[in-house]
Design a protein that fits this description.
The complex is a heterodimer. By secondary structure, chain A is an alpha+beta fold. Chain A has helices at about 10-20, 35-40, 75-80, 85-90, 90-95, 100-105, 110-115, 125-130, 225-230, 240-250, 265-285; strands spanning about 5, 25-30, 45-50, 60-65, 65-70, 135, 140-145, 150-155, 155, 165-170, 175-185, 195-205, 205-215, 225, 235. In chain A, about 35% of the residues lie in helices and about 25% in strands. In chain A, the strands form 4 sheets. Chain A has a 5-stranded antiparallel β-sheet with strand order 4-5-10-6-7. In chain B, a hairpin with a 2-residue loop joins strand 1 (about 5-10) and strand 2 (about 10-20). Chain B is of the alpha+beta class. Chain B has helices at about 25-30, 90-95, 105-120, 125-130, 140-150, and strands spanning about 5-10, 10-20, 50-55, 55-60, 70-75. Classes of the chains: A alpha+beta, B alpha+beta. The interface of A and B includes residues 32, 50 and 189 of A.
Chain lengths: ~290, ~150
C-alpha cells in the first residue's frame, strides 16, 4: 500500500491531478473509510489526493428561495450540530448523528460518506427523501444531478475518474414537512445499519399530501420505496394505511444476508422501522 | 516517499518525516515515544487510540499522520500538569474505580475531556452517547460513566 500523497488547495488543481493519474488516484477527505480500504487492499491507489485543505468546500448555507447548500468537505459532526440545520432540516442532523461515533464524525465528511456509497450510508436516505442534488466538478464543467441518480451500486457512484463532488443542494422544504431517520443497529451508531429508514412527509394533521420513504442497507443502493409511498400519498394516515405501507416497503426491499443480519430479518425490520418512522413523523407534525 | 511535517503535540513543536501511510498513532508510539496512546483494534472502532486534534476527539489509528501538518494535538501525556499533577478527569477515574486493565483508559479520558468541553454538564444518557466510540471489555462502563459525571461537577 505504498502511494504518493498530494495536498492540492483548489478544486481545479484536484481535477488536474485526478486527470493526470487517470484511474490510479483516489481522493481522500477525512479518510475514515479510505484508510481502511487501502489497508485491507480493497482499494489500491498509487496516488492519494487529500482535498481537506481546500478552503472553499466547508460550509452550510441556507437561503429561503434556493434552499440549502452544503459543501462536500463539511464534517458529519458539523452537519449534526449545525443550528441552521437543526431549525430547517432537523432530519439531516438526526441522520448525521447516527454515523459511527463522535470521533469519526469529527473527521469524516458528508461528501466522503456519499462518495463512498455504502448501501447503508447514514446521510443518504434523508437526502434522497428531501430530493437533494449533487454538484460535481470535472475538467470541462460542473454538473448537477439528483442524488437518486448518484448511486449505481454498492460502493459505486457516477463519478468519473477526473471528477470530484463539491456540493450537496437541498431545495427549500414545503411548509408542514417533517422528516424522521431511524437506524436499526445492534450497538447504536458505531455499528453499520442493519436497516435505515428515512420518512419525509408533508402533513396536514394526519392527512398526507406527499411522502417519501427511503430505505438504506436493504439494497445495492439506498432506495425509494415507491409502492409504499403510493399507499400513503394523498391519504389519511391511520393504522391500516401504515400496516399496508410498511408491508409494501418490506416487499420492495432487496436485502442480502451478511454478517450483520439475514435478509429475512432485514425485511421484517423494514416493516417495523417504516411503521415507527411514519408514526414519529405524524407525532412531529402535530 | 516521506514528507516532513510540523505540528504541535502537548505544547511542544515537533518536526518529523513521515510516510503517507503512517497513522498518527504509529507516529506517537514509534517515533515520538508517546506510548500513552494505545492501539487496539487498529480500525477506528474501539477508541483506545483517541487523541484530541484542535480540541476534537479523533481516532489516531486511522488518521494519517501526514494530515496532522499544522495541527495542535493533545495526547493523554499532555493532560497532566508540568510536575505530573493529574488532571481532574484522571483523578475522577481513579476515585471512582473506573480503571481495571487500563487499556481503554487513555482513550476514554481523552474522549471525556472532549465531552466536557462540548457539554460541561452532561446527563448520563449524553455521557453514554458521547462515549459510544470507546469500548471497554472490563468495567461494564458503569464506573466510567460515574467518573465522567463526577468530574463534571
Amino acid at each position: 500500500m505504498r502511494y504518493e500523497y498530494m495536498t492540492p488547495v483548489t478544486i481545479e488543481e484536484t481535477i488536474a491531478l485526478l486527470a493526470e493519474h487517470n484511474g490510479k488516484a483516489k481522493v481522500i477527505a477525512g479518510g475514515t473509510d479510505l484508510v481502511l480500504q487501502i489497508r485491507n487492499k480493497t482499494k489500491k491507489p498509487e496516488y492519494v489526493i487529500d482535498i481537506s485543505e481546500i478552503p472553499t468546500l466547508d460550509y452550510i448555507k441556507y437561503d429561503k428561495k434556493q434552499g440549502l447548500s452544503i459543501g462536500a468537505l463539511t464534517t458529519v459532526r458539523d452537519v449534526e450540530n449545525s443550528t441552521e440545520l437543526l431549525q430547517k432540516y432537523p432530519v439531516l442532523c438526526q441522520a448525521a448523528g447516527r454515523l459511527g461515533s463522535v470521533a469519526i464524525r469529527n473527521v469524516g465528511t458528508i461528501g466522503g460518506n456519499l462518495c463512498n456509497a455504502s448501501p447503508s450510508a447514514e446521510n443518504a436516505p434523508a437526502l434522497i427523501g428531501l430530493s437533494a442534488k449533487i454538484k460535481i466538478a470535472g475538467p470541462n464543467d460542473e454538473r448537477v444531478i439528483p442524488i437518486e441518480d448518484f448511486f449505481v451500486g454498492p460502493g459505486q457512484t457516477v463519478l468519473k475518474n477526473e471528477e470530484v463532488m463539491t456540493e450537496i443542494q437541498v431545495p427549500a422544504p414545503q411548509p408542514n414537512t417533517v422528516g424522521v431517520y431511524l437506524k436499526h443497529a445492534i450497538r447504536g451508531s458505531i455499528d453499520l445499519a442493519i436497516v435505515g429508514v428515512a420518512v419525509i412527509a408533508e402533513l396536514d394533521g394526519k392527512f398526507c399530501r406527499d411522502i417519501k420513504i427511503v430505505l438504506g442497507a436493504v439494497g445495492p443502493t439506498p432506495m425509494r420505496a415507491r409502492g409504499a409511498e403510493k399507499i400513503v400519498n394523498g391519504n389519511k394516515i391511520d393504522n391500516a394505511v401504515i400496516e399496508k405501507c410498511a408491508q409494501a416497503a418490506s416487499e420492495e426491499s432487496r436485502p442480502i444476508t451478511d454478517v450483520r443480519a439475514s435478509a429475512e430479518y432485514r425485511k421484517e425490520m423494514v416493516k417495523v422501522l417504516v411503521k415507527n418512522g411514519i408514526n414519529e413523523a405524524v407525532r412531529k407534525g402535530l | 516517499m516521506k514528507q516532513i511535517i510540523k505540528f504541535v503535540v502537548n505544547g511542544f513543536e515537533k518536526e518529523i518525516a513521515v510516510e503517507p501511510w503512517w497513522s498518527l498513532a504509529h507516529v506517537f508510539r514509534e517515533e515520538l515515544d508517546l506510548t500513552g496512546t494505545k492501539v487496539s483494534c487498529n480500525e477506528g472502532d474501539c477508541g483506545a487510540c483517541t487523541v484530541l486534534i484542535d480540541g476534537k476527539a479523533v481516532k489516531s489509528c486511522i488518521y494519517p499522520a501526514i494530515k496532522a501538518r499544522g495541527k495542535n494535538i493533545l495526547t493523554i501525556e499532555g493532560l497532566s500538569g508540568k510536575k505530573g499533577e493529574l488532571h481532574k478527569i484522571q483523578e475522577s477515574y481513579i476515585e471512582n474505580f473506573a480503571i481495571q486493565c487500563g487499556y481503554c483508559t487513555p482513550g476514554m479520558i481523552m474522549t471525556t475531556k472532549a465531552l466536557l468541553e462540548d457539554n460541561p454538564n452532561p446527563n448520563e444518557e449524553e455521557v453514554r452517547e458521547y462515549l459510544q466510540g470507546n469500548l471497554c471489555r472490563c468495567t461494564g462502563y458503569k464506573k466510567i460513566v460515574e467518573a465522567v459525571l463526577y468530574s463534571a461537577q
